[in-house]
């Protein structure tokens, strides 16, 4: 008798759920599935981060003993290369962002009012969004390399006697140009959405 009652309750719950899905649509079901997938992704990313952080302290060591240690962090902070790379990254990130916003601001003001050709200009300016960063870097390196296209053109025209170094310079001019080219569409999108 108890088994019969529990089967009847389950059947009623299934019918009730089916009726609720028909009334409300599939949106709640889809939302619950999205929540489940998002939760699983966050769980696995969290586990990866958890293992990485603990391995940096000498725990969960795959090749030997597990001992808590700050040795890896001390090695990192005692290296000059670490501070140079952090400074270089901050320099490139901050300067390229500032230049992108400075260039995008007047362009966004100019493109606010539609005119003949504004859609084409807007599309050309947003074209870097379609180019993957690695592809852009590879193309750019081929342009500015010591024996790249730009050097070859200027030598052929007679502007330069020999190729000049435009890559791996101290001021990161090449990297800044590429970053501005990639960041300008983002700045343009943001500034064109804001009522200036």
Radius of gyration: 29 Å
Count of distinct strands: 0
Name the helix and strand elements from N-terminus to C-terminus, one letter apiece.
Answer: HHHHHHHH
Number of helices: 8
- The low-confidence runs, each spanning 5 or more residues with pLDDT under 50, are none
Shape: flat
Structure write-up:
The chain is an all-alpha fold and 196 residues long. It has eight helices and no strands. It has helices at 2-24, 27-56, 71-77, 80-110, 118-125, 133-144, 149-157, 173-193. Helix 4 crosses helix 8 (173-193). The chain starts with a helix and ends with a helix. The model has no long low-confidence stretch (mean pLDDT 82).
Q: How would you concisely characterize the structure shown here?
A:
The protein is mainly alpha-helical. It is built from eight helices and no strands.
Features:
196 residues
Topology readout:
Blueprint lengths: L1 H23 L2 H30 L14 H7 L2 H31 L7 H8 L7 H12 L4 H9 L15 H21 L3
